[in-house]
Design a protein that fits this description.
The protein folds into 3 domains: 66 residues, Multidrug-efflux Transporter Regulator, Chain: A, Domain 2; 34 residues; 141 residues, no CATH class. It has 10 helices and 4 strands. Helix 6 crosses helix 10, helix 7 packs antiparallel against helix 8 and helix 9 packs antiparallel against helix 10. The two termini are 49 Å apart.
Amino acid sequence: MTIREVEEALNVTRANVRFYEKEGLIAPKRNPLNDYRDYSKEDVEALRRILYLRSLDVPIEKIRKLMRGEEKLCEVLKEQKQELEKQSRQTQEAILLCEKLLKEREWSFYDFPVEEGGEQNQSVLLRDTLTKLWMFWDKLVVWGFLALQVLYTVIVFPLLPERIPVSWDDLTVTEYGGRGMFLVYLGLSLLLMLGARKILYIWLVGGLRCYLEELSAILTVGVIGYGFSVQVYTVLSLRGIPVGIDAFQLGCIACYLLAVVLIVLIYRQYKKNAAS
């Protein structure tokens, strides 16, 4: 296709097409007969998608990373949605301030009131900070939990006897093993950290893929927590804990699910406050 045909097909100006060429987002080949640019079907489809993302104000650099496979579309769209929501809040606040000034009296440049950094600005900064923290909550939880397990293992392992309980029937120890089993639980957690997200990429499709980070965090922390709970119960068993393994792990699961629910509820409440 010629550039004129591209203009007509996509309702875009020649300057726009040239701009995205200069940015390296499309690279049409040259017609060997006249040295004019020859836009392939793939070039046109790529440009169509670029224009659509630009209509959502997605930055050029993000689009470039998407085309290179360095970013996931759902993550880019989630970040862009948050950015647009932030801009929307700022715009609405600016409209309210304009209305407030217009209702009071005719101001000049030298006498209209200017608010210093007060509660309103602090509220905006707090909401933006909490939103950004939510994007990384899964990493903080996962790595924090793993760090706790590593620290616990390093401290407790030298104090263990040569043989430790590895299997229980309620309160009764049914099997003993070498204390090296204590390190196996940590090794499984580390292996999970390396492979969990790649496995989830294969398993999760469609809309669920956009929630990969959250689902991955819940699964990863859950499995790490299982191994960690066995480590803790091993030490407590050596000290004669009056609670069976099943009851202990059920309590751990309940605490973990409660924590997940609380995090989700807190996040939703802040999102609701930010939107209001």
